[in-house]
Amino acid sequence: MSSSNPTPRPDLQRVPKGDVLGTYDTYLEAQAIVDHLAKADFPVAQVSIVGNDLKSVERVTRKLTWSRAALEGALSGAWFGLFLGLLFSFITPALNTGLFVAAILIGAAFGLFFRLVTYAVARRSRDFDSTKQVLASNYQILVDPSLTSRAQQIIATPPAAP
């Protein structure tokens, strides 16, 4: 049985192989090169961006406090109460402002309570907020060996102005 697709499917369980077209410090730099190749009608299905030397980076964004936890919980609960108030306003024929305000206040109270409880439990082990990401030390563009010289010619020419 022959396939009409001339491009073989990549093996997604293995690290791609090929010639290194270039090594870049950021993913955006590598992405810009692949974009340049794509605009020159290069078969980008034969290109891979490989991140090397992966690191897990956690950046501490702030210290948690009781007041911040209370405010976050109240605001989060108020948003949920606002959502429920809007749903109730669609169900009831006449807009009842008291019901709408009550839903927001009850949501804020429950949000505040639950956030303070979760903060009290988590405070023993973690008293800060952070963001996590996985970053590579560098990014290599790999290309099929039969297309290396063509890719090098394309990236040697500056991209056309938009």
UniProtKB/TrEMBL annotation:
<feature type="transmembrane region" description="Helical">
    <location>
        <begin position="97"/>
        <end position="122"/>
    </location>
</feature>
<dbReference type="InterPro" id="IPR025889">
    <property type="entry name" value="GSP17M-like_dom"/>
</dbReference>
<keyword id="KW-0472">Membrane</keyword>
<protein>
    <submittedName>
        <fullName>General stress protein</fullName>
    </submittedName>
</protein>
<feature type="transmembrane region" description="Helical">
    <location>
        <begin position="69"/>
        <end position="91"/>
    </location>
</feature>
<keyword id="KW-1133">Transmembrane helix</keyword>
<keyword id="KW-0812">Transmembrane</keyword>
<dbReference type="Pfam" id="PF11181">
    <property type="entry name" value="YflT"/>
</dbReference>
<feature type="domain" description="General stress protein 17M-like">
    <location>
        <begin position="20"/>
        <end position="106"/>
    </location>
</feature>
